[in-house]
Amino acid sequence: xxxxxxxxxxxxxxxxxxxxxxxxxxxxxxxxxxxxxxxxxxxxxxxxxxxxxxxxxxxxxxxxxxxxxxxxxxxxxxxxxxxxxxxxxxxxxxxxxxxxxxxxxxxxxxxxxxxxxxxxxxxxxxxxxxxxxxxxxxxxxxxxxxxxxxxxxxxxxxxxxxxxxxxxxxxxxxxxxxxxxxxxxxxxxxxxxxxxxxxxxxxxxxxxxxxxxxxxxxxxxxxxxxxxxxxxxxxxxxxxxxxxxxxxxxxxxxxxxxxxxxxxxxxxxxxxxxxxxxxxxxxxxxxxxxxxxxxxxxxxxxxxxxxxxxxxxxxxxxxxxxxxxxxxxxxxxxxxxxxxxxxxxxxxxxxxxxxxxxxxxxxxxxxxxxxxxxxxxxxxxxxxxxxxxxxxxxxxxxxxxxxxxxxxxxxxxxxxxxxxxxxxxxxxxxxxxxxxxxxxxxxxxxxxxxxxxxxxxxxxxxxxxxxxxxxxxxxxxxxxxxxxxxxxxxxxxxxxxxxxxxxxxxxxxxxxxxxxxxxxxxxxxxxxxxxxxxxxxxxxxxxxxxxxxxxxxxxxxxx
Length: 559
What we know:
Blueprint: H1 6-9, H2 22-31, E1 45-47, H3 56-69, E2 81-85, H4 88-104, H5 109-119, E3 120-122, E4 134-139, H6 151-160, H7 171-181, E5 182-193, H8 203-212, E6 213-220, E7 235-242, E8 248-253, H9 259-271, E9 277-280, E10 283-288, H10 303-315, E11 317-318, E12 327-330, H11 337-340, E13 341-342, E14 353-357, E15 373-375, H12 391-398, H13 402-405, H14 408-412, H15 426-429, E16 433-437, E17 446-448, E18 453-454, E19 458-462, H16 468-476, H17 478-487, H18 500-503, E20 507-508, H19 516-528, H20 531-542
Parallel strand pairs: 1-2, 1-4, 2-3, 4-5, 6-8, 14-18
Antiparallel strand pairs: 5-7, 6-7, 8-10, 9-10, 11-20, 12-19, 13-15, 14-15, 16-17, 16-19
Helix pairs in contact: 2-9, 3-4, 4-5, 16-19, 16-20, 19-20
């Protein structure tokens, strides 16, 4: 067992300690099945960072109640709990509390002291080498950014727990070790920040969870008074299990959510397996048929919206689909727009100019070319032109002096100093394209009928099979917007990033599955820029009930 001296840890050990309200603890004990009607003495509960005993004390209460109900001797309870904390004052305090509880339950002073010291131990959970297996791991792991720790501690944590990537909080390591110690069907019940579900530093942990474990519950509690002090931790109740994935309960709460609603939701989650939706004061919940796979970002949003995303993920193919020849990508990056983007068509040879579509061309909702050109240094076969063959191009580029040669791409390949960062693919030029501007509050696909090449501030969709106006209607709908809100990055002012990685997550029906009235409804909505009509038509195309998924066609979306 590795234990740090108090003098080494005083500077940081108390960081991240947040005291959890009793009703939250009771809820997690219920959700993980740590209830007195079970023989809890036959199980092992682990508390990784017990602090003041917010979780440990109620767990001991339940354990003692269970022992009395099942006629189990108190002396037999030594293996029932393992709880750890770094701070000696927390350890001695909780040992005393546990000892008093045991004596009140009838244990001798000697037995009470022995059990209390067996249960509550001073140790660093992330570095303690005790080979513990657990039926239940429960608690509120500390919130400490790994870069805020002493360098030697940070390095030791990263060596021990490889899911602690990048700028992770150390709670990621608590998840990893806890998952690893679970017995079959064992459960973790944490109230913890949910940032790991969507941030890059949580990718390895997400992959670990979906590859060998199951998500049973995620209750988002960002505005709930769950702690005895105000914190900005974006907390969520999260229950994970070692075993195959089954239905998962997602819940979204408001500041009105409290003990009574939590008890009702917990009862519904456990007992009413046939019901798909739940509402009570301050909370709405939905039972998903399964969880989202892989290490990529898990979606966020209301329970109904998550149910929609899961349903569409299961039933439909991605917008980016080689089978239909449909591609999502980004426009050309030049590395020097002030050189390569021009409005003067006389600066270079005519065949070195490509009409360029820009963000401003989409402002009206219909494509209106602003007269910009791309100075194109590429041939049709994808090689760079020989400047000797294009004297006006050569003269124009040479007038930039060292501006082009000073770029990284030019230094890396000095012979190709006149290249743009991206190649220009001539076959894209003639294709009709749905252009989508990044950094907006709502999705706004605009049809460029062909003949223009997209600038790198625009994302585009091309397809060999879709009627582009029909597809445009689907992308204009709130169904498509729901995917971006679930997966995309939200900036200030509710601005969303409409990047290709998020656009590719949009699911669409098979073009051949749409009847002509539905196609025409989507086409007309797209032409009229009518997002409400597009959403109504999309609901028919997807065969969904909008109200079932928090997707009223006429109401604004809320992430």
